[in-house]
Design brief:
Structural class: alpha/beta
Largest sheet: 6 strands, mixed
Distance between the termini: 39 Å
Length: 235
């Protein structure tokens, strides 16, 4: 289906890359110019002059508006939302526990559910077009998905650049806010759509990109126990 498209995805990617390069050059040039102006201003006399007509700013100060609004809100907002363990926004998608070590690969194909058209109305990518996003982008870090009971294992296993995601197991959900404050490391929840897109079925699992595929490494009880004995064994 991709061969029927008037504009191949790679050509579009090259164009976007060129545009990004130009944008970076413009930003860099602007930064150099600002730095040069700042240096000139520091060495120039402090006297200033006004050329042309000036008017006072009529708009209210944005910070003052925010502070005024905050002053009208209750000091303890938690009472308005109830206990955190009841917040639907903090509910993780469930995964079954891994019973054995297993490594498998997934290609996260995506199918457009609408047409992508050019300003003139010409179709660039039609509805139903299926492609692999990993052809054009690279996942910059691994995802370490664990149940709350295996968080200590995840903290030992995860690299500094990895994301740690909590998944639910029965009534065991975990509070990412409390755990983030307790561990000093950002903890996230596994969303249902991420679970489906990555083809996750069990946890703990480490998701990493290898070329145009995702490699899912699932860790059974034996490997987790080994990691307790030999720190870093699961990395």
């Amino acid at each position: 289906m991709a061969a029927d498209l008037p504009f191949p995805p790679r050509a579009r990617l090259v164009a976007l890359g060129q545009a990004a390069t130009v944008a970076l050059l413009v930003v860099a040039a602007g930064t150099i110019a600002i730095a040069a102006d700042a240096q000139t201003a520091q060495s120039a006399p402090t006297a200033r002059s006004t050329i042309g007509r000036t008017w006072p700013i009529a708009e209210p100060d944005a910070l003052s508006e925010i502070e005024a609004k905050v002053a009208t809100l209750p000091r303890d907002m938690s009472k308005a939302f109830g206990p955190r363990d009841k917040w639907s926004a903090l509910k993780s998608a469930p995964l079954a526990p891994a019973t054995a070590d297993r490594t498998r690969t997934v290609v996260p194909f995506y199918t457009l559910d609408f047409d992508i058209t050019l300003p003139g109305g010409k179709t660039l990518y039609p509805k139903g077009f299926t492609f692999n996003p990993l052809t054009f982008v690279k996942l910059p870090q691994r995802l370490v998905v664990v149940h709350p009971r295996d968080l200590a294992w995840a903290l030992r296993t995860a690299r500094q650049s990895d994301f740690i995601l909590l998944t639910a197991l029965g009534q065991e959900n975990g509070d990412p806010i409390t755990l983030t404050e307790k561990t000093g490391r950002a903890i996230y929840i596994l969303e249902e759509r991420v679970k489906e897109r990555l083809g996750l079925t069990v946890a703990p699992v480490v998701v990493a990109q290898a070329g145009q595929k995702l490699v899912l490494t699932e860790f059974g009880p034996r490997s987790r126990k080994l990691a307790d004995i030999v720190p870093g064994a699961a990395r």
